[in-house]
Amino acid sequence: MTLARIVLQVLLRTAVLAFGLVAYDLGYDEVVTPTPGDADIGKGLLAFLLVIVASMVWAGIDGLRHRPLVWLVVWAVTALGVGIGWEYVAGLLDDSREHVELGVDLFFAQLVLWPAYVAAGFAWLVSGRPRVGVPATR
Question: What are the helix (H) ranges across 34-127?
Answer without folding.
Answer: 41-65, 68-93, 102-126
